[in-house]
Amino acid sequence: MFLPFFPVVLGFRGLDAAEIGLVLGIGTIARIGASPVLSNLSDRTGQRRLSILIYALAAAALLLLYFLPFGLVFVSVAVIGFMVMNAPIVPLSDAYALDVQRNTGADYARMRLWGSAGFVVASIVGGTLASEDTSWLVVVAIVLSSFATGAVAMSLPRQKRGKEKQDSDAADAATPFRSVWFWPLLTVLGLYQASHSAFYGFGTIYWQAMSVPDFAIGLLWATGVVAEIALFTVAGKLSQRFDPAIFLLAAGVAASLRWLLFPFADTLPAMAALQTLHGLSFGAAHLGAVAILARIVPSQWAGTGQGLLATSVGIQMAIGLSISGALYEVNPDWPFYLMSIVAAVGTLATLVMTPMLRRKMG
């Protein structure tokens, strides 16, 4: 609800476009920085579920400041505070889910698909509420969702996280964070998601300029998420045959093809066909990146690893959006061609790094 509709909510609150951009821009920068810091704090305390509860409650409490009858400063504190405290929740949830997979053999992808399904449902509900008279209900729904997140986290069983009794110095030495090769890898993993920045920022605008009806645009977005869910449904079986590097390579090829052909899709069937590639370009990239980090980062520091991945994606996504915006002003097709090149670069880099990756994961 927050990503698609909160800019609309802020507009109904009386903020102009510049103020909305300023608040969300500062919040995005703060979120990028907060994710690895707060995730690392959770890893150091060893209280992953309790951390999710605390962060979720803090996010909800800060967002409630939105309802105070004050001006831009309080609204900014509410929104930026919410974005900061919400930042580590997904990385920590992924880290917990990976512990479950490690300890019980459960299928991470099948757990993750409910995030995609939830996004679809929340988008539909949020769309019905994002009007001037009911926009405040979007804020209430987000606050209630944060409370629910904390409650669900604490209802889950505690997970064993690898060799929890090992010496802390040895645990620190086992982390790849001080290794030179880890940071280029983190950059490449973020590159796959960053190749979607032109679409996230300008895909709807591009289709509107082609006179695609708003309802059809909604269906096109939904097609991508359904393809993503379909991949998550079968990814567990696929992972038994293919290692995470293959998932990344498949994602890179799909993304390169998707963005290269995007400007040429001038009919709804063609657009929908390209949208099905989202299952690979996003879904396979996400599964591959998460699985690689799960194998090379010790369980004790899994939250930090996932938080660093979120930061890598966030930084590169911000850069991609800025460049795409400038290119879109010159030629609307150019941002998508650039994203095709970005995906191709990520694919080539993965090919080069695959032997090293397999050694580290082995």
From TrEMBL:
Where mainly found? membrane
Q: Which residues are in the Major facilitator superfamily (MFS) profile domain?
A: 134-362
What the entry lists under InterPro entries is as follows:
HcaT-like, MFS_assoc_dom, MFS_dom, MFS_trans_sf
Where it sits in the cell: the answer is: Cell inner membrane
Please give, as recorded in its UniProt entry, the membrane topology of this protein: Multi-pass membrane protein
Query: Pfam families of this UniProt entry?
Result: MFS_1_like (PF12832)
Keywords assigned by UniProt, alphabetized: Cell inner membrane, Cell membrane, Membrane, Transmembrane, Transmembrane helix, Transport
Its transmembrane ranges are 20-38, 50-68, 74-92, 113-130, 136-156, 177-195, 215-234, 246-265, 277-296, 308-328, 334-357
Which PROSITE patterns is this protein grouped with?
MFS (PS50850)
Q: Which domain of life is it from?
A: Bacteria
Q: What is this protein called?
A: MFS transporter
Organism per entry: Roseibium sediminicola
